[in-house]
Structures are given as C-alpha cells and as structure tokens.
Write a structure and sequence with these properties.
CATH superfamily of chain A: Transmembrane di-heme cytochromes, Chain C
Number of helices of chain B: 22
Distance between the termini of chain B: 47 Å
Shape of chain A: globular
Strand content of chain B: under 5%
Number of domains of chain A: 1
Radius of gyration of chain A: 21 Å
Shape of chain B: globular
CATH architecture of chain A: Up-down Bundle
Largest interface: A-B, 64 and 71 residues
Oligomer: heterodimer
Largest sheet of chain B: 4 strands, parallel
Structural class of chain B: mainly alpha
Largest sheet of chain A: none
Bound molecules: iron/sulfur cluster
Order of helices and strands of chain A: HHHHHHHHHHHHH
Number of domains of chain B: 2
Number of strands of chain A: 0
Chain lengths: ~240, ~500
C-alpha cells in the first residue's frame, strides 16, 4: 500500500506539473493578434493587474452575473484555499521558516471548518447543475463527475477531521519520506485516508486534461488581460506582420 | 411590413428568462454564398470534397493563430453564468442560442480532435465527430450570434462567444459554406469602395443633393466635399449614411459641425465605407484588405486626421484594430488620436464652446439612448475608460432638453444588441432579428410607458436600420429612431460663432 501510494503520488504530481506547464507554454506561444479586451478596460498594465486580481480574488464578473453561482463558487474556492494552507502542515518540517505561520491555532481552525464551506459550496453547485434547466442542458457527464469527485474528497476529509481521526504522526512521517525521497515509514491504514489521498492524486492526474484548465486559462484570457491602448501603441503579431510584405 | 410567418413575442416591461425549448430556431439559416460571392474573398465557391479534413485543418490553424480561441475552448467550466445573457436566447428560448450552448457546437468537435479526453473518452466530455450535419448546425447557429460580446462581460473567464463565432464562420468560409449577405458585400467593397455599391458619380450626386437641402432648410451653404486633396480631415462613414433614414440626417449633422467649427474635411470615394464586414466573418486578411483602403485614401488625399462617422462595429475595427491592420499612421498629425470618432470631435467642440447648440430645437422629443454593443464593449471614446458611455450622452444632453436612460441592466456595458448586428442584418433572417430585439424592445417600452419617451437615439448604422425595420412589428413607429448627429443637426446654431 505504501509503495503503491508513493508511486501514484510521484506520477500524478509529475503529470500535473508537466501537463500544466505544457499548456501554459502553448497559451504563451499562441499570439493574440488583435486587441480584444472586454471594455471598459484598464488603460495601463497596473490597471490590468488590478482587474485580474478582482477576478481571481472576488470573482467580479460572476458576481455581476448570478449571485447564487457566485456565492457557491466563491465559498468553494475560498474554502479550498484555507483547507490547502492547513494541509501544508503535513508536508512541512517544523524547522522550516514558515512553520509557525501554518502551525497555529487560527490557520488550523479556519482550515478545518473551511471544509464545511467547501461542502456547502459544492452541494450548491451540484444542485444548480441538476435543478436549473439551462445549466442541466450544458452539463456533460464529466461536469457531474468532477463535482462528485470533489465531494467525496471533501467528505472523506471531513470524516477524518471530525469523526474518525487518523494517526497524523505516521501520515506526516510518510509524507516527509515522499518529499525527502526517503522510505521506511508506512502509510497508516484508514479507509477515509486511502479514499482521500487516492482521489486527490486522481484530481491532479486529470487536471491538465479537463476544465480545471480554467485556472491558468483566466490569466491568458485576452478579454481580461489586455490593456486598452490600441490607438497609442501598435499591436501586431508575427504572423500578421508577414501579410505586410 | 410583410405579414410574418412566425409568432411575434409579446413584450414585457422586464425581460423574462424563458424555459428551454429545444430546436425552436434550428430552421433559421441565412442564404449560402454563391461562387461569385466567395471567390473574390479567396474562398472556394462551393462545399469542397474534403470538407471534413479541411475544416479540422482550419480549426487547428486558427487555434495556433488566436490565443483567445485556444483559451476559450479549454476554459469553460459550464457554470451557466452566461446562459441567460444572450438576447437571441431570451427572444427564442432555443438552448443552442445560450452563449455556452453556441460555443459547445464548436467545442465538442475541438475536444474530439484536439484533446486527450475527447479522443479517448468522448462520451465523458461530450465530444463529437465532425459530420455534415454539424456543418449545417454551425451554419445555422453561428449565424444567430451578433458577436455582441454581452456574454463575455458576465463570464468569469471573459470567454467571448463572438470570437468563437468568428472562428466558426471562417472555417465555414474555408470549406465553401460562406454567408451570401456578408461575402457579397465585402466583394462589393473591393470592387467599388462601399457596401452599397455606390460608385463615385452617385456619391457626388447625393452629396450635392444634401448641400441643396441644407441650403434650402437652413439658408446656409454647408459643403459635403468628396475627394478633396489637401483637406485636413478624412471622414469615413458607413455608406448607409449617404441615403438611408435616419442615417443621412446624421451625415447632415457631421457636415454642419465641421462647417460651424471651420474644419476642413472631405469624404473619399475610394474609402466610402466605414463598415468592415471582414470582422463578422472572422477573416483577418479580408478585414485588413478593407481597412487598407482607408490608409490608401488618407495617403492619397494627404489628410492630417481620420474621423469615423456613427457606426458600431466600424468603430470597433477603427478604434481597436485599424492601427494594427493598416498602421502605423505616423504620416498623420500626432496631436490627434488615430482614428477619432465624430462624437469625440463634436464633444470636444462643445466643451470648448466652439459650436453653439440650442436644445429647444428638439423640444418635440423625449430621448433615450441605445448603447451599441460594439461601441460599448469593444471600444472607447475619449481619454477615460467608459467615455463610450458618457460622451454620446453628453452630446445628446447638450442637444435636447429631455433625456431618460433605460433600465441600468440594459445600458452601458450591459447593453443588449439591437438584434441585427454581426452580419445578420438581412431579410432572410427576419424572424431572428425580430425575436432577438426583444430585450431592447422591453426596455424601450418601459421608458415609453413610464417616462413618455418618444425617440431613441443610436450611433450605429446597423442599429438604425435594424430598429427602423423591427419597431413596426412591435407596434411602434419606425421614425422613433434618430441619429445622434441628427439631434446635433437640429440644435446647432449655424453662424453663431462667425
Ligand atoms: S456574442 Fe452576443 S449574440 Fe453572440 S452568444 Fe454572446 S450574447 Fe449572444
Ligand atoms: S459563463 Fe463562461 S465559463 Fe460559465 S458557462 Fe458561460 S462560457 Fe462557460
């Protein structure tokens, strides 16, 4: 079991990193030949950073559009961030400089209860997908499965956090082995833990091949990341330049 | 107005989101281009034998050329946020007119041929083979998108269905399934210089007629010059301005503004068209070829500035793309942005008190204003973001005493398309145009009933033509639509500044 999971972790992490890096490279290399920011758009680069920050942190466009989806979506994502930070405790050595930032009452408490926020957000999103006819129409099997996958990860996590605590010390020893390329510590045996870790690895595996690409995609979206200055600066792509000769 | 063979929607004061009705608009398709419309644009005359491979090849080509397309096809999470934002969906209830429903028609093929998940697990991600039926479906529904970008405003990733429609139309053109309306018009621009096919003598004649009209009505000798070398300003305006109503009243207004401000200007017969349908068909090359005529005219006439008349998509191509397509414009006077909008010019003159307006001349009207989709969401006016909303309103308010805005969720960057943009302003799409106008008609009806509005001003040749045609279907008068510069034209006091 320990060996299996160790292998799975290395593979899925590798696929995640390489896959996303290749996608980012593709986005980076593909030119945006025309200025197409959704107006009104910022007229400076700093303004674009601010616009992007509002999208990433507050989901501004979604907020303008539908308050329910915004609420569920934002709770899910923000909860995920808090839970993620809390989990750093399992992969960080107590000697590390950031340790006190992670291993304190506030972060651990917020991270633990964020799981309920995630659960609530996911259930809301699932309900919308099932009950709003327009959203149901556009949903493919993968859209439901993605939510179910996240739900099972969340529920198994909640189980370990609130119902049947697991042997954290052994888990951490196992995780530190993975990081330091060491071995010797066994993965503690627990059904929720196996489910939790297995599905997280699966999530990492499918990330570069699924709609989870919306995360890097947002940063490359020309309608959001372009500066409104076409009259001041000539914007021309390489392939378009060739038409001029 | 011919008796329609479809049901005209009933107007509400607030547009309601309809329940889905699948297939209600599956029959809507514009006429297919004939070989003589296709070939001048560099497209095959009819559907090619190897359409399948060619379409997939073209899709790959576009994915490599347009980052937007690649990112948009990958990033949609099917959140549904855009589903109730398209006027064509709101007016027809057809789920394939929901922006994401429309995108998915292309996305399912993209996934099948270009993504790992779609190649190996098509059923899981809704990927599908490209078939002959798919092409017909693309042809139908990508000609039910006016490329208005309203969906993009509300998408958390800014996914712009307009870009996807343009790509789809380019693929269709490339396999020989072009749209007659757009392609015939583009060919006309290449041949004659404008969408309407008005040759130089006809233009000269029309302009002379305008001079006589103004002299008769106002007793002032306002000139409407054509092809005058050495003029300071080249005015490029949609050719509908030369004779359609109420467009021509706008053109009369531009002339009066230039006259009163003492600016030297000219129109060009070579670039007698501001519209650029190359954008609608997503063809960079054709859009560039149309734009180059403006550069050529500016060089040939030796002007110092370029100013565009009232037109929505034309202002998009002008403001956002002209410098890219036909620049650099370093031979023009660097004191002025290239190009400028006529409203920027007039607004500036009003601010500087260089023209005098008497708003009481328009006291027989109560005005509202329709933000054109392309102007609102794809361009700017003036130095500050949002100038595209404030500048037209300030010019209107300087020209009239009574002005009321429509509901906030239907104006500024939330504005609804008139229903006829994006190359859909053709009689073979009348049902779509009438139904797509529903959200704007709803909002208009409300200000008519609650505020006694009598007229709606517009700054786009397509909006003006579309509304003039569609208003009667809803029992409103076609003469409710006015050009913004028509209001200026009525209010301007000629000779006040001499
Ligand atoms: S661009 Fe406009 S017409 Fe096209 S799908 Fe989006 S909202 Fe509808
Ligand atoms: S709003 Fe954007 S992400 Fe959401 S369904 Fe529409 S296109 Fe997809």
């Amino acid at each position: 079991m320990t060996f299996l999971f160790a292998t799975l972790f290395y593979i899925s992490l590798g696929v995640l990193i390489v896959g996303v890096a290749l996608k980012i490279r593709q986005y980076w290399k593909t030119p945006a030949p025309l200025k197409i920011p959704t107006m009104p758009a910022p007229t400076t680069q700093a303004g674009v950073v601010f616009r992007m920050a509002r999208e990433v942190i507050l989901f501004e466009s979604l907020f303008r559009s539908t308050k329910w989806t915004w609420m569920f979506g934002w709770m899910f994502h923000f909860g995920l961030l808090l839970a993620f930070v809390r989990h750093l405790r399992y992969v960080m050595s107590p000697d590390f400089i950031l340790w006190p930032l992670i291993n304190n009452w506030l972060v651990q408490f917020a991270g633990q209860y964020a799981s309920l926020m995630i659960l609530f957000g996911l259930l809301g999103l699932l309900a919308r997908r099932i009950f709003v006819d327009r959203v149901r129409y556009i949903s493919a099997p993968s859209d439901y499965l993605m939510l179910i996958l996240l739900l099972v990860i969340t529920v198994s996590g909640i189980m370990m956090s609130f119902v049947t605590p697991i042997d954290i010390v052994s888990l951490k020893a196992f995780m530190m082995d993975l990081i330091t390329l060491d071995s010797g510590h066994e993965l503690p045996v627990s059904v929720p833990l196996v489910i939790h870790l297995g599905l997280v690895a699966l999530l990492a595996l499918i990330f570069p091949f699924s709609k989870l690409l919306h995360a890097p995609g947002l940063f490359f979206s020309p309608s959001r990341n372009q500066v409104d200055n076409p009259r001041e600066r000539r914007h021309i792509s390489d392939w378009a330049k060739k038409l001029e000769s | 107005m011919a008796k329609p063979d479809f049901e005209i929607p009933e107007l509400k004061l607030d547009t309601e989101v309809p329940a889905l009705k699948e297939g209600t608009m599956a029959h809507s398709s514009p006429f297919i281009a004939k070989p003589e419309h296709q070939e001048p644009l560099g497209f095959p005359g009819e559907l090619v034998e190897d359409w399948h491979d060619r379409a997939i090849g073209k899709m790959g080509d576009l994915l490599g050329k347009y980052r937007g397309l690649q990112v948009y096809l990958d990033s949609c999470v099917k959140c549904g946020s855009c589903t109730d934002k398209c006027h064509y969906f709101l007016g027809t209830s057809d789920p394939k007119n929901m922006p994401v429903g429309r995108q998915d028609l292309l996305r399912k093929v993209y996934r099948r041929y270009f993504t790992f998940a779609g190649k190996y697990f098509p059923w899981l991600v809704g990927a599908e083979d490209l078939t002959r039926e798919t092409l017909d479906e693309w042809y139908s529904y990508y000609h039910q998108c006016s490329q208005c970008r309203r969906c993009s405003v509300f998408c958390p990733y800014g996914i712009d269905t307009a870009e996807i429609s343009m790509a789809a139309r380019e693929i269709l053109d490339d396999v020989g399934m072009g749209q007659k309306y757009c392609n015939e018009i583009i060919a006309k621009v290449f041949r004659i210089g404008n969408n309407l096919g008005l040759p130089e003598p006809a233009l000269a004649d029309t302009l002379e007629g305008l001079e006589e009209d103004v002299l008769e009505d106002d007793g002032v000798d306002v000139k409407y010059p054509l092809d005058v070398k050495g003029a300071d300003i080249l005015l490029v305006t949609p050719s509908a301005d030369f004779f359609a109503e109420p467009h021509v009243d706008g053109l009369i207004g531009y002339g009066k503004v230039f006259h009163e401000a003492g600016l030297s200007w000219t129109l060009s017969s070579h670039a007698s068209e501001a519209a650029n349908f190359g954008m609608f068909i997503g063809s960079y090359e054709n859009m560039r070829n149309v734009s180059m005529r403006i550069r050529e005219a500016a060089l040939d006439l030796g002007v110092k500035r370029i100013v565009f008349g009232e037109c929505g998509h034309a202002w998009r191509v002008a403001y956002s793309f002209l410098n890219t397509l036909a620049g650099p414009f370093d031979f023009l006077d660097p004191k002025y942005p290239v190009p400028q909008h006529i409203l920027e010019v007039t607004h500036d003159l009003i601010q500087r008190d260089a023209i005098k307006l008497d708003p009481s001349a328009n006291d027989d009207m109560i005005l509202t204003f329709h933000d054109s989709c392309n102007v609102a969401r794809a361009t700017r006016m003036g130095p500050k973001p949002g100038g595209q909303f404030t500048i037209p309103r300030e010019v209107i308010k300087a020209s009239v005493n009574r002005f009321v805005d429509m509901a906030p969720e239907t104006i500024h960057d939330s504005t609804y398309c008139c229903g006829g943009g994006g190359g859909l302003l053709t009689d073979d799409l009348m049902e779509l145009r009438v139904k797509g106008a529903v959200p704007r008609m709803d909002a208009l009806k409300r200000v008519i009933e609650e505020d006694g509005v009598t007229h709606m001003a517009a700054i786009c040749a397509i909006c003006k033509s579309q509304f003039t045609k569609v208003l009667p279907y809803y029992g409103m008068g076609m003469d409710m639509i006015v050009s913004v510069h028509q209001l200026v034209s009525n209010a301007i006091v000629l000779g006040a500044k001499k």
